[in-house]
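Help: read this over?
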Amino acid sequence: MNKRYQGIVQDFSSWYFSREAFPYWVVSVLDLLLILVSMMLMYSLVYGPANLVANGYPVLYALLIDLIFYGIGIRIFHTYADVTKILAFKDLARTAAATFLGSVLCVAFRWAIDLLPFATEIPYRVFFLTFLSATAALWLWRVVAKNLFEYVRRHVREEVELLPRQEIEVNMERIGELLRDRSVMVTGAAGSIGSEMVRQIAEYHPAKLILIDHAETPMHDLMLEVRQKWNTIDATFMVSTITNAERMEQMFKKYRPDYVFHAAAYKHVPMMEDNPGVSIINNVMGTRILADLSTRYKVKKFVMISTDKAVNPTNVMGCSKRLCEIYVQSLNTYLTSNKEAHEETTQFVTTRFGNVLGSNGSVIPLFKKQIEAGGPVTVTHPDIIRFFMLIPEACKLVLEAGTMGNGGEIFVFDMGHPVKIADLAKRLIQNSGRRDVKIEYTGLRFGEKLYEEMLFKGEEEMPTDHPKIRVAKVRQYEYNSICEQFDKLMSLARTADDMEVVRMMKMIVPEFKSNNSRYEVLDRELERKKHA
């Protein structure tokens, strides 16, 4: 959708669906107007349109009197409540009961009082037909209102409203100057973050897009979207895992990307806790392959997406991302210190942020499914909190950081205050209109902690040109030593010995302390050796 018109839609939807702009009287007036139109149509059906035109005022007076009784039915059965929420059978039955009562009261009033001196007589069958047609009309507009409301909430408003702060703005023109007429590679391109980055990058007409993802169906969907919206851009869609070193080299050699945005990673904490070898091979080895190829083929800038779970990691996934950070930072330092005068080397930049609202596998899609199924909504702990961002703003900040970095930086985003997951669940339940959905606390999952951090203990932040982006000053690692340790770690990962893999991870990243996990025994073992 055109950005200008999308903004108009957002402004209108924000007003239209607010409590102030959509009170009960508005719903009641709409209901009464539909009933009035139904009565006029049914009168025309019985007597013909010509009769309605010829006796317009007397008929209208009679119908307006009858409208009072339908208003009584609406008031008694509260048909104006929750029209944009979950539409249940009881809501439709309540609407039918209101129109039925209104029709009965009209007939009773006609039977008791003669209106002929003031208004046209309306036959009883008109009220019966009005009951049928008005009920159908009220049902139809409720279904339309509910679905329109759901669409707007899902696509425009809901995620914005769930975020307890203003959306972060960035300088998109500077990003455009960087990417326009360049060759850009995006890994994990079919994921929630990757696909949004592709959309934003495509707006600036790069000369070439090289998009890589191992998920065939989402990649096909992305291909159709790009070819429809940006058919002038030369785009290549490669279904491949980033650990296929030969295939990745073919891509770098053939297309020579200027910029690489690395979003591909396994990210689910419980899954990676059970599969540490896979986490190392995909996340760490995949990053190493891409980083080395970027150096070999003279990529200008390599931007890696990391996570707040890499800070003081308590799980395998978070530690694997910390290892990725360590590798690209140490490689950047090595290249900078060993380059010849005036030689250009690849600049490696890392961006670190928290959870993304609405991304694949995040809590919002899960909570919505649970609410639609009638609950319960499962939350691991009543006090668990997380930092959140919107998908578009996360991608904008990644691109903005890419324009800032000179190599070696870890950019940290200011995401405001952390959000209680339980409060998020309550808000979604409230928005759905369901009052019968309960929250069930299931206990922390393996490797999960109550809160996430953006900096290690002792790390400092430095400001940048953007008020919401900081640079974290982190401990440096020696590249050759890291390569030796990584070689050993990769070898262990292929043996599928989980304990040995995690033990090695803890040796490289000593701040990795497992939480609620079978690997806690390794922490005790390493602590004993430390004090032996």
